[in-house]
Amino acid sequence: xxxxxxNNDTVHRVSFLDKASLHIPTLRxxxxxxxxxxxxxxxxxxxxxxxxxxxxxxxxxVLDERMLGAQRQGRISFYMTCTGEEAAVIGSAAALDDGDVxxxxxxxxAALRYRGFPTEQFMNQMFSNEKDFGKxxxxxxxxxxxxxxxxxxxxxLATQIPQATGVAYGLKLQGKRNVAVCYFGEGAASEGDFHxxxxxxxVLKSPTIFFCRNNGYAISTPTEEQYAGNGxxxxxxxxxxxxxxxxxxxxxxxxxxxQQARAYALEHNVPVLIEAMSYRLGAHSSSDDPSGYRSxxxxxxxxxxxxxxxxxxxxxxxxxxxxxxxxxxxxKYREEVLSAVKTAEKLPAPHIDEIIEDVFDxxxxxxxxxxxxxxxxxxxxxxxYPKSAGRI
Length: 392
Prior knowledge:
- This protein is about 40% helix and about 10% strand.
- By secondary structure, the chain is α/β, with parallel strands linked by helices.
- Strands 1-8-9-5-4-2-3 form a seven-stranded parallel sheet, with helices on both faces. Strands 6-7 form a two-stranded antiparallel ribbon.
Protein backbone atom coordinates (compact mmCIF):
# COMPACT_ATOMS: atom_id res chain seq x y z
CA UNK A 1 0.00 0.00 0.00
CA UNK A 2 1.37 3.49 -0.89
CA UNK A 3 2.15 6.15 1.67
CA UNK A 4 -0.73 8.22 0.29
CA UNK A 5 -3.26 5.65 1.51
CA UNK A 6 -1.55 4.35 4.64
CA ASN A 7 -3.14 5.53 7.87
CA ASN A 8 -2.75 3.85 11.23
CA ASP A 9 -5.82 5.64 12.58
CA THR A 10 -8.58 3.78 10.75
CA VAL A 11 -12.31 3.44 11.31
CA HIS A 12 -14.80 0.92 9.99
CA ARG A 13 -17.86 3.12 9.85
CA VAL A 14 -18.37 6.33 7.89
CA SER A 15 -16.96 9.22 9.93
CA PHE A 16 -16.77 12.71 8.44
CA LEU A 17 -14.69 15.62 9.64
CA ASP A 18 -15.99 19.18 9.63
CA LYS A 19 -14.60 22.61 10.49
CA ALA A 20 -15.25 21.99 14.19
CA SER A 21 -12.87 19.03 14.11
CA LEU A 22 -9.87 21.37 14.15
CA HIS A 23 -9.66 23.55 17.25
CA ILE A 24 -7.61 26.69 16.57
CA PRO A 25 -6.95 28.84 19.66
CA THR A 26 -6.19 32.56 19.43
CA LEU A 27 -3.02 33.84 21.07
CA ARG A 28 -3.65 36.82 23.33
CA UNK A 29 -1.10 38.48 25.63
CA UNK A 30 -2.19 42.11 26.01
CA UNK A 31 -5.60 43.17 27.33
CA UNK A 32 -7.51 46.26 26.24
CA UNK A 33 -6.54 48.14 29.39
CA UNK A 34 -2.81 47.71 28.73
CA UNK A 35 -2.25 44.91 31.23
CA UNK A 36 -1.15 41.42 30.27
CA UNK A 37 -3.03 38.22 30.90
CA UNK A 38 -1.96 36.51 34.10
CA UNK A 39 -0.23 33.50 32.52
CA UNK A 40 0.88 35.19 29.33
CA UNK A 41 4.42 34.61 28.05
CA UNK A 42 5.76 37.91 26.74
CA UNK A 43 7.85 38.24 23.58
CA UNK A 44 11.45 39.37 23.54
CA UNK A 45 10.98 43.15 23.91
CA UNK A 46 12.83 45.93 25.72
CA UNK A 47 12.21 49.66 26.02
CA UNK A 48 14.22 50.52 22.91
CA UNK A 49 12.21 48.14 20.74
CA UNK A 50 8.93 49.26 22.31
CA UNK A 51 9.78 52.91 21.59
CA UNK A 52 10.54 52.14 17.96
CA UNK A 53 7.30 50.21 17.58
CA UNK A 54 5.24 53.01 19.11
CA UNK A 55 7.06 55.67 17.10
CA UNK A 56 6.08 53.77 13.95
CA UNK A 57 2.48 53.53 15.17
CA UNK A 58 2.22 57.28 15.66
CA UNK A 59 3.87 58.10 12.35
CA UNK A 60 1.53 55.73 10.51
CA UNK A 61 -1.57 57.19 12.15
CA VAL A 62 -0.48 60.73 11.31
CA LEU A 63 0.51 59.79 7.75
CA ASP A 64 -2.85 58.09 7.16
CA GLU A 65 -4.80 61.05 8.53
CA ARG A 66 -2.87 63.64 6.54
CA MET A 67 -2.70 61.77 3.24
CA LEU A 68 -6.34 60.75 3.24
CA GLY A 69 -7.05 64.44 3.71
CA ALA A 70 -4.67 65.26 0.85
CA GLN A 71 -6.55 62.83 -1.39
CA ARG A 72 -9.86 64.47 -0.51
CA GLN A 73 -8.31 67.83 -1.46
CA GLY A 74 -7.29 66.45 -4.86
CA ARG A 75 -3.57 66.65 -4.15
CA ILE A 76 -3.02 62.90 -4.68
CA SER A 77 -5.24 60.51 -6.59
CA PHE A 78 -5.59 57.57 -4.20
CA TYR A 79 -4.83 56.40 -0.68
CA MET A 80 -5.22 53.40 1.63
CA THR A 81 -4.89 53.48 5.40
CA CYS A 82 -3.48 50.99 7.89
CA THR A 83 -5.83 52.23 10.64
CA GLY A 84 -6.83 49.44 13.01
CA GLU A 85 -4.24 47.00 11.69
CA GLU A 86 -1.07 48.61 13.02
CA ALA A 87 -0.37 45.84 15.53
CA ALA A 88 -0.59 43.16 12.85
CA VAL A 89 1.80 44.99 10.53
CA ILE A 90 4.24 46.68 12.92
CA GLY A 91 4.28 43.86 15.48
CA SER A 92 5.30 41.39 12.80
CA ALA A 93 7.81 43.74 11.13
CA ALA A 94 9.50 44.28 14.51
CA ALA A 95 10.21 40.55 14.76
CA LEU A 96 12.18 40.43 11.53
CA ASP A 97 15.80 40.83 10.55
CA ASP A 98 16.61 43.68 8.17
CA GLY A 99 17.80 41.08 5.66
CA ASP A 100 14.40 39.37 5.58
CA VAL A 101 12.52 40.23 2.39
CA UNK A 102 9.05 41.73 2.72
CA UNK A 103 6.44 41.16 0.03
CA UNK A 104 3.47 43.30 1.01
CA UNK A 105 -0.06 43.66 -0.30
CA UNK A 106 -0.92 47.36 -0.06
CA UNK A 107 -1.74 48.14 3.56
CA UNK A 108 1.69 47.48 5.06
CA UNK A 109 3.41 50.83 4.66
CA ALA A 110 3.94 50.75 8.43
CA ALA A 111 6.35 47.83 7.94
CA LEU A 112 8.30 49.91 5.43
CA ARG A 113 8.43 52.79 7.88
CA TYR A 114 9.65 50.46 10.62
CA ARG A 115 12.51 49.51 8.29
CA GLY A 116 13.48 53.19 8.04
CA PHE A 117 11.77 54.53 4.90
CA PRO A 118 12.02 58.34 5.18
CA THR A 119 9.01 60.64 5.16
CA GLU A 120 10.15 62.43 2.01
CA GLN A 121 10.27 59.16 0.08
CA PHE A 122 6.71 58.32 1.09
CA MET A 123 5.73 61.69 -0.39
CA ASN A 124 7.85 61.35 -3.52
CA GLN A 125 6.10 58.08 -4.31
CA MET A 126 2.59 59.39 -3.66
CA PHE A 127 3.17 62.53 -5.71
CA SER A 128 4.98 60.59 -8.50
CA ASN A 129 7.69 63.22 -8.78
CA GLU A 130 11.19 63.06 -10.20
CA LYS A 131 12.64 61.72 -6.93
CA ASP A 132 10.24 58.78 -6.73
CA PHE A 133 12.13 55.47 -6.74
CA GLY A 134 9.45 54.09 -9.08
CA LYS A 135 9.90 57.00 -11.52
CA UNK A 136 6.25 57.95 -11.28
CA UNK A 137 5.00 54.74 -12.85
CA UNK A 138 2.89 53.50 -9.95
CA UNK A 139 -0.26 54.83 -8.35
CA UNK A 140 0.09 56.14 -4.77
CA UNK A 141 0.94 53.74 -1.89
CA UNK A 142 2.67 51.25 -4.23
CA UNK A 143 6.01 51.63 -2.47
CA UNK A 144 9.21 49.70 -2.92
CA UNK A 145 12.76 49.88 -1.61
CA UNK A 146 15.61 47.67 -2.74
CA UNK A 147 17.81 48.99 0.07
CA UNK A 148 15.25 48.02 2.72
CA UNK A 149 14.38 44.63 1.17
CA UNK A 150 10.79 45.68 0.58
CA UNK A 151 9.59 44.52 -2.81
CA UNK A 152 7.48 46.93 -4.83
CA UNK A 153 3.73 46.64 -4.33
CA UNK A 154 1.71 45.16 -7.17
CA UNK A 155 -1.97 46.06 -7.60
CA UNK A 156 -3.22 42.64 -8.82
CA LEU A 157 -4.40 40.74 -5.77
CA ALA A 158 -2.30 37.89 -4.30
CA THR A 159 0.48 37.89 -6.90
CA GLN A 160 3.01 38.32 -4.09
CA ILE A 161 2.09 34.99 -2.45
CA PRO A 162 3.75 32.55 -4.89
CA GLN A 163 6.49 35.11 -5.44
CA ALA A 164 7.28 35.03 -1.72
CA THR A 165 7.68 31.26 -1.91
CA GLY A 166 10.23 31.72 -4.66
CA VAL A 167 12.08 34.52 -2.87
CA ALA A 168 12.42 32.46 0.30
CA TYR A 169 13.51 29.41 -1.66
CA GLY A 170 16.18 31.53 -3.33
CA LEU A 171 17.41 32.77 0.06
CA LYS A 172 17.63 29.16 1.20
CA LEU A 173 19.62 28.10 -1.88
CA GLN A 174 22.04 30.98 -1.26
CA GLY A 175 22.57 29.77 2.30
CA LYS A 176 21.27 33.00 3.80
CA ARG A 177 19.77 32.98 7.28
CA ASN A 178 16.76 34.99 6.22
CA VAL A 179 13.11 34.46 5.45
CA ALA A 180 10.60 36.03 3.10
CA VAL A 181 7.52 37.52 4.75
CA CYS A 182 4.35 37.74 2.71
CA TYR A 183 1.44 39.92 3.80
CA PHE A 184 -2.08 39.49 2.42
CA GLY A 185 -5.70 39.80 3.49
CA GLU A 186 -8.24 37.04 3.90
CA GLY A 187 -9.83 38.16 0.63
CA ALA A 188 -6.57 37.46 -1.22
CA ALA A 189 -6.63 33.98 0.30
CA SER A 190 -9.58 33.26 -2.01
CA GLU A 191 -7.31 33.67 -5.04
CA GLY A 192 -5.66 30.71 -6.73
CA ASP A 193 -2.24 32.26 -6.10
CA PHE A 194 -2.73 31.64 -2.38
CA HIS A 195 -3.19 27.90 -2.78
CA UNK A 196 -0.40 27.52 -5.31
CA UNK A 197 1.99 29.58 -3.19
CA UNK A 198 1.34 27.73 0.06
CA UNK A 199 1.49 24.29 -1.51
CA UNK A 200 4.78 25.10 -3.24
CA UNK A 201 6.26 26.46 -0.03
CA UNK A 202 5.24 23.40 1.98
CA VAL A 203 6.48 20.89 -0.59
CA LEU A 204 9.72 22.72 -1.44
CA LYS A 205 10.38 23.60 2.22
CA SER A 206 10.68 27.29 1.53
CA PRO A 207 11.29 29.42 4.67
CA THR A 208 8.36 31.78 4.14
CA ILE A 209 6.18 33.46 6.75
CA PHE A 210 2.71 33.83 5.28
CA PHE A 211 1.02 36.59 7.27
CA CYS A 212 -2.74 36.92 6.77
CA ARG A 213 -4.44 40.07 8.03
CA ASN A 214 -7.98 38.81 8.53
CA ASN A 215 -9.69 42.16 8.94
CA GLY A 216 -13.26 41.05 8.40
CA TYR A 217 -13.87 42.36 4.89
CA ALA A 218 -12.57 41.90 1.36
CA ILE A 219 -13.51 45.44 0.36
CA SER A 220 -17.28 45.15 1.01
CA THR A 221 -17.55 41.35 1.25
CA PRO A 222 -17.70 40.08 4.86
CA THR A 223 -15.84 36.93 5.83
CA GLU A 224 -19.02 34.86 6.14
CA GLU A 225 -19.59 35.41 2.42
CA GLN A 226 -15.97 34.58 1.55
CA TYR A 227 -15.49 31.15 3.07
CA ALA A 228 -17.31 28.49 5.08
CA GLY A 229 -14.25 26.99 6.75
CA ASN A 230 -12.43 27.81 9.99
CA GLY A 231 -10.76 31.00 8.83
CA UNK A 232 -7.44 30.97 7.00
CA UNK A 233 -5.40 29.20 9.70
CA UNK A 234 -7.08 25.87 8.96
CA UNK A 235 -5.70 26.03 5.42
CA UNK A 236 -2.15 26.24 6.70
CA UNK A 237 -2.67 23.02 8.63
CA UNK A 238 -4.21 21.51 5.50
CA UNK A 239 -1.07 22.29 3.55
CA UNK A 240 1.07 20.71 6.24
CA UNK A 241 2.67 23.77 7.77
CA UNK A 242 3.05 25.16 11.28
CA UNK A 243 0.19 27.58 11.86
CA UNK A 244 -0.92 30.02 14.54
CA UNK A 245 -3.87 32.36 14.99
CA UNK A 246 -3.28 35.56 16.96
CA UNK A 247 -5.25 38.56 18.13
CA UNK A 248 -4.22 40.99 15.41
CA UNK A 249 -4.91 43.97 17.67
CA UNK A 250 -2.47 42.70 20.29
CA UNK A 251 1.01 44.05 19.53
CA UNK A 252 2.74 41.68 21.96
CA UNK A 253 0.94 38.58 20.68
CA UNK A 254 1.82 39.39 17.07
CA UNK A 255 5.44 40.12 18.01
CA UNK A 256 5.75 36.86 19.96
CA UNK A 257 4.14 34.76 17.23
CA UNK A 258 6.31 36.24 14.48
CA GLN A 259 9.53 35.95 16.50
CA GLN A 260 8.90 32.26 17.02
CA ALA A 261 7.61 31.70 13.49
CA ARG A 262 10.82 33.16 12.08
CA ALA A 263 13.00 31.04 14.37
CA TYR A 264 11.12 27.88 13.40
CA ALA A 265 11.16 28.66 9.67
CA LEU A 266 14.93 29.16 9.73
CA GLU A 267 15.69 26.17 11.93
CA HIS A 268 13.70 23.76 9.80
CA ASN A 269 13.70 25.55 6.42
CA VAL A 270 9.92 25.40 6.22
CA PRO A 271 7.02 27.86 5.86
CA VAL A 272 4.78 29.09 8.68
CA LEU A 273 1.31 30.63 8.46
CA ILE A 274 0.13 33.35 10.84
CA GLU A 275 -3.49 34.48 10.82
CA ALA A 276 -3.99 37.80 12.62
CA MET A 277 -7.62 38.49 13.52
CA SER A 278 -8.12 42.23 13.22
CA TYR A 279 -10.50 44.88 11.86
CA ARG A 280 -10.11 47.57 9.25
CA LEU A 281 -11.28 50.69 11.10
CA GLY A 282 -11.08 52.88 8.00
CA ALA A 283 -12.47 52.44 4.52
CA HIS A 284 -10.92 49.89 2.18
CA SER A 285 -9.46 52.80 0.21
CA SER A 286 -10.16 56.44 -0.54
CA SER A 287 -12.58 55.16 -3.21
CA ASP A 288 -14.67 53.18 -0.72
CA ASP A 289 -17.63 54.11 1.49
CA PRO A 290 -17.94 51.47 4.25
CA SER A 291 -21.30 52.83 5.43
CA GLY A 292 -22.83 50.90 2.55
CA TYR A 293 -21.93 47.51 4.02
CA ARG A 294 -21.31 47.89 7.78
CA SER A 295 -22.90 49.78 10.64
CA UNK A 296 -21.59 52.60 12.79
CA UNK A 297 -22.32 50.40 15.81
CA UNK A 298 -19.98 47.73 14.48
CA UNK A 299 -17.22 50.26 13.91
CA UNK A 300 -17.71 51.75 17.38
CA UNK A 301 -17.40 48.30 18.94
CA UNK A 302 -14.08 47.71 17.23
CA UNK A 303 -12.81 51.16 18.17
CA UNK A 304 -12.66 49.79 21.72
CA UNK A 305 -10.03 47.30 20.50
CA UNK A 306 -7.78 49.99 18.98
CA UNK A 307 -4.33 48.33 18.81
CA UNK A 308 -2.35 51.56 19.12
CA UNK A 309 -4.23 52.67 22.22
CA UNK A 310 -3.77 49.22 23.79
CA UNK A 311 -0.02 49.25 23.22
CA UNK A 312 0.23 52.86 24.42
CA UNK A 313 -1.46 51.91 27.71
CA UNK A 314 0.97 49.03 28.15
CA UNK A 315 3.93 51.36 27.66
CA UNK A 316 2.48 53.86 30.15
CA UNK A 317 1.98 51.03 32.65
CA UNK A 318 5.65 50.10 32.16
CA UNK A 319 6.75 53.68 32.73
CA UNK A 320 8.14 53.88 29.19
CA UNK A 321 5.75 56.56 27.94
CA UNK A 322 3.69 59.47 29.27
CA UNK A 323 0.91 61.59 27.79
CA UNK A 324 3.14 64.65 27.30
CA UNK A 325 5.71 62.68 25.30
CA UNK A 326 2.93 61.11 23.26
CA UNK A 327 1.45 64.50 22.41
CA UNK A 328 4.88 65.82 21.39
CA UNK A 329 5.42 62.82 19.11
CA UNK A 330 2.10 63.35 17.36
CA UNK A 331 2.79 67.03 16.84
CA LYS A 332 6.31 66.33 15.55
CA TYR A 333 4.98 64.01 12.86
CA ARG A 334 2.09 66.29 11.92
CA GLU A 335 4.60 69.06 11.16
CA GLU A 336 7.01 66.68 9.43
CA VAL A 337 4.39 65.15 7.16
CA LEU A 338 2.83 68.51 6.26
CA SER A 339 6.25 69.94 5.41
CA ALA A 340 7.10 66.91 3.26
CA VAL A 341 3.78 67.21 1.41
CA LYS A 342 4.47 70.85 0.52
CA THR A 343 7.95 70.00 -0.75
CA ALA A 344 7.05 66.87 -2.73
CA GLU A 345 4.07 68.33 -4.56
CA LYS A 346 6.23 71.14 -5.97
CA LEU A 347 8.78 68.83 -7.57
CA PRO A 348 8.33 68.12 -11.29
CA ALA A 349 7.29 64.79 -12.71
CA PRO A 350 10.02 62.44 -14.03
CA HIS A 351 11.34 63.20 -17.50
CA ILE A 352 9.25 61.53 -20.17
CA ASP A 353 12.26 59.57 -21.48
CA GLU A 354 12.44 57.62 -18.22
CA ILE A 355 9.18 55.88 -19.01
CA ILE A 356 10.96 53.31 -21.20
CA GLU A 357 14.08 52.89 -19.05
CA ASP A 358 14.61 49.76 -16.91
CA VAL A 359 12.08 47.74 -18.91
CA PHE A 360 14.81 45.98 -20.89
CA ASP A 361 18.58 46.24 -20.66
CA UNK A 362 18.36 48.71 -23.54
CA UNK A 363 15.14 50.26 -24.89
CA UNK A 364 13.89 48.25 -27.85
CA UNK A 365 12.99 49.83 -31.21
CA UNK A 366 9.31 49.24 -30.45
CA UNK A 367 9.56 51.14 -27.16
CA UNK A 368 11.44 53.99 -28.80
CA UNK A 369 8.73 54.22 -31.46
CA UNK A 370 6.00 54.27 -28.81
CA UNK A 371 7.85 56.99 -26.89
CA UNK A 372 8.13 59.12 -30.01
CA UNK A 373 4.40 58.75 -30.68
CA UNK A 374 3.64 59.61 -27.04
CA UNK A 375 5.68 62.80 -27.28
CA UNK A 376 3.85 63.81 -30.47
CA UNK A 377 0.52 63.23 -28.76
CA UNK A 378 1.47 65.28 -25.67
CA UNK A 379 2.82 68.10 -27.84
CA UNK A 380 -0.49 68.12 -29.69
CA UNK A 381 -2.56 68.25 -26.48
CA UNK A 382 -0.27 69.88 -23.87
CA UNK A 383 -3.12 71.21 -21.75
CA UNK A 384 -4.35 67.65 -21.15
CA TYR A 385 -0.94 66.62 -19.77
CA PRO A 386 0.31 69.62 -17.77
CA LYS A 387 2.93 67.68 -15.79
CA SER A 388 4.38 65.77 -18.72
CA ALA A 389 4.27 68.55 -21.28
CA GLY A 390 7.06 70.43 -19.53
CA ARG A 391 9.27 67.35 -19.25
CA ILE A 392 9.68 66.36 -22.89
